[in-house]
């Protein structure tokens, strides 16, 4: 994550250079004033760019070893209809959804950095993107009601989309990719979702989920 202190130092340095440019302009040192103004403006532009990038990266979490990211619990309310309670880890945010289908799916975005970027603290990062219901039968998947819910906002400069549109412009980004995990829905089933460098992993954690997963295979 880009440090706020680094951004602040760059911005302050830029402001100091602009103040110095004003002083030199007042003393009729036009060439020196122009150089200070240009450099100060450049530093402020860099600080602004880092700020909007950092704002977007704050929607991601750092990814090192495998770690839990969510728990999801189901309560059946009708044929192929379930109440789903998703608890994100570690922030504890709880979200409730109604999912239609036989299976649930959780999607995530992953950003991986070049090796040299890791030296500046830029570990691989992830962001839970959306949760949805899906049907086991392909024909039903094409025609039946779809239920899809977003899990994240996207403020600031979207590095994900920028990397896809102009991959050569961001040399510090190694890869961006989407990843998903899905398992069967069942009344009372509880699943834990973890993430590693290879992506999302869903595991049943109670008997209802284990029975559903066992029959699903």
Tell me what the structure shows.
- The model has no long low-confidence stretch (mean pLDDT 78).
- This protein has 217 residues and is an alpha+beta fold.
- The relative contact order is 0.16.
- It contains six helices and ten strands.
- The protein is 36% helix and 36% strand.
- It has helices at 4-26, 30-57, 115-118, 138-143, 159-165, 207-216, and strands at 61-62, 67-78, 81-88, 94-100, 103-113, 125-134, 148-150, 173-184, 190-196, 199-204.
- The chain has two domains: 4-57; 63-216, no CATH class.
- The strands form two sheets. Strands 1, 5, 6, 7 and 8 form a five-stranded antiparallel sheet that branches. The protein has a five-stranded antiparallel sheet with strand order 4-3-2-9-10.
- The longest helix is centred in the first third of the chain and has 28 residues, at 30-57.
The pLDDT mean sits at 78
**How many distinct beta strands?**
10
Shape: elongated
- State the order of secondary-structure elements, H for helix, E for strand: HHEEEEEHEHEHEEEH
Total number of domains: 2
Distance between the termini: 40 Å
Radius of gyration computed on alpha carbons: 24 Å
Question: Would you tell me the structural class of the helices and strands?
Answer: alpha+beta
Which spans of ≥5 residues are poorly predicted at pLDDT below 50? Answer: none
**Most strands sheet:** 5 strands, antiparallel
In percent terms, what proportion of residues is strand?
35-45%
Helical coverage, percent range: 25-40%
- Helical segment count: 6
């Amino acid at each position: 994550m880009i440090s706020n202190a680094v951004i602040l130092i760059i911005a302050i340095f830029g402001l100091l250079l602009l103040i110095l440019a004003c002083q030199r302009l007042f003393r009729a040192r036009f060439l020196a004033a122009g150089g200070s103004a240009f450099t100060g403006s450049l530093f402020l532009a860099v600080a602004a760019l880092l700020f909007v990038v950092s704002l977007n990266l704050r929607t991601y979490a750092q990814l090192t070893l495998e770690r839990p990211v969510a728990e999801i619990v189901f309560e059946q309310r009708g044929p192929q209809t379930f109440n789903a309670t998703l608890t994100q880890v570690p922030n504890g945010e709880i979200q409730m959804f109604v999912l239609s289908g036989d299976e649930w799916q959780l999607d995530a975005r992953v950003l991986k950095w070049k090796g040299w970027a890791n030296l500046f603290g830029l570990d691989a990062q992830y962001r839970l993107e959306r949760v949805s219901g899906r049907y086991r039968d392909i024909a039903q998947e094409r025609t039946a009601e779809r239920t899809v819910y977003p899990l994240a906002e996207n403020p600031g400069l979207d590095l994900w989309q920028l990397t896809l549109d102009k991959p050569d412009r961001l040399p510090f980004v190694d890869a961006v990719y989407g990843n998903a995990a899905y398992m069967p829905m069942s009344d009372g089933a509880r699943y834990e979702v973890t993430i590693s460098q290879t992506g999302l992993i869903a595991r049943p954690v109670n008997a209802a989920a284990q029975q559903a997963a066992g029959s699903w295979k």
